[in-house]
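Methods — Computational structure assignment.
A single polypeptide chain was analysed. Its primary sequence is given first, followed by the predicted tertiary structure written as structure tokens.
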Amino acid sequence: MADITLTASPALTANVTIGANQIALRDDLALVSIATPLGGEAQLAKALKDGWGLDMPDARHLSVQDEIQAIQTAPDQMLLVFAHPTPDANAVVQARLNGAGYTTDQTDTYVVLDVSGPDTRSALERICPVDLHHDAFAIGDVARTSMDHLGTMIVRTGPDTFLMMSARSSAQSFLHAIETSFRAVV
């Protein structure tokens, strides 16, 4: 039998510039889901604090320490987002949690885009039902929503910068929706 080598390929390969705006693929990020065991909230909170200096995230605002973010995705569930170059992110998180949470690597299930520029809010508001103005959606705020029929998680990371996640299986449609909306406002 012949040896077969599988090679991972990115969901998207292009970064897009439209006017002064940028849509950039973030394929350098690891995403690990953590579920809280029944009755284990205090133990998980301590493990997050001891392992990364993170507080438990709340429903609308992420917890950030250095370059790692914790995003609540459901009651008793969160997503850790952090730069990690190798495919062992789940093992790294498990080692730091020391049994305080149930983990699943989600890195290959999402496509993550960093969207930025002066027209970003105007472009996103055309396809997103969330009010993205500064007073309604501050830096560090998180929302699960839909954008142009696609399930999306959106995080405001700067004045005109958003980290956006959607299912990898619809990566091309996700990029197309955002790119089309930018082209309509620029």
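Note: The radius of gyration is 17 Å.
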